[in-house]
Design a protein that fits this description.
By secondary structure, the chain is an all-alpha fold. It is built from four helices and no strands. The longest helix has 29 residues. It is elongated, with a radius of gyration of 28 Å. The two termini are about 55 Å apart.
Length: about 110
Amino acid sequence: MRRIDVIGIGIGVFAAGGLLYLVFAFAGLDGRSAGSWSQVVLVAGLLGGTATYLSRALGKKMTYYQQLEDYENAVLQKRLEEMSPEEIAQLQAEVEAERQAKATQEEAREGVGR
């Protein structure tokens, strides 16, 4: 986000607070009540925005993580395309051997845990 975007958002929030105050005042609330209720709405919006940001950040659903995953997948795909059929067969054999070893370890753990 650019600096000008942050400044624009700040001005927008400031203007929204003033507009909320005017709406509440027009609705019949006195100055203090209108100010208090406009602050309540703005703070609720701030907390809601922070909560959605945290949920996206903790869930790794942000643009950076998606770009990183796409890049890693593209690199792996390119490496796979560059491999010869013999190398692919060797890689598949290694993966299968690791799967079998992992399955054997899990069976051993389950046997010990009983």
